[in-house]
Amino acid sequence: MKQSGLFLTALGASFLSESALGFTPCGQHGRSATQALSSMPEPWQGDVVMAEGGIIQGCAIEPAVEGSLTEWKLNIDGVQADLGRFSEAIYKKVTADAKRQQFQGFRPGTIPPHLEPTYRAFAMDECARETVLEALQQNNVRPFDSCRSEMLLEQFSIPPLKSKQKKKKKKSKKKKGMDGDIVAVEEPVEEEEPEPQWRSFETMKEAVDAGWRPGQSFSFVAVNVKGQKLPTPKDGSDPLNFNN
């Protein structure tokens, strides 16, 4: 995502005046993700994980309507695309900026607790939109100017909650005592628990309210994504198989 247009200037007064999750996506005149994140003491040097041929991993892109070359639907697998680290980098940057502000009634360097969900939601939203733009670029689709703000993000999946320590169930076994008599002895036995499943939510707000945190991965679907499919590159690659 080194050349993409992720902007981190939306955390101004208008953004903070909104409810914890009622923010508006960033505009198109701020700093890029690379510029913003490079100011961190130890900036994350990673990128969205790419497969051979330069195509983003974990992305399935298809026309929203059969035959369309301007409207798209994308399914993003956050584990394969490494969205956990990217969302964490965004969150660290915006909260570091926030700690330099003075919030009335709080000590310098303190972020009011009621604003913390806003920053988490902002990190998730920015990470998702930037990933979609990167996926379009990698699939030879040029996004329209309004693409970033008009795309709709839905069907979020987040990791399961950490499972609690397994309960040990006691099971009786018969053993011989010192005097040769048979006695019943209870031994602890661990109960098998089903493998935890990822949790699914229709909206980003529901996913954040359910406990998603920056640094965790997440998967989602993007619809109403507008962009122009460009001619097949000279190297003959055709990521979307439009020529088949």
UniProtKB/TrEMBL annotation:
Going by the UniProt record, its keywords in alphabetical order are: Signal
List the residue ranges of the region (Disordered): 163-200
GO process terms (BP): protein folding; protein transport
Where does the secretion signal sit in this chain? 1-22
Amino acid composition bias (Basic residues), ranges on this chain: 163-176
**Protein name, per record:** Trigger factor ribosome-binding bacterial domain-containing protein
Q: Which organism is it from?
A: Entomoneis paludosa
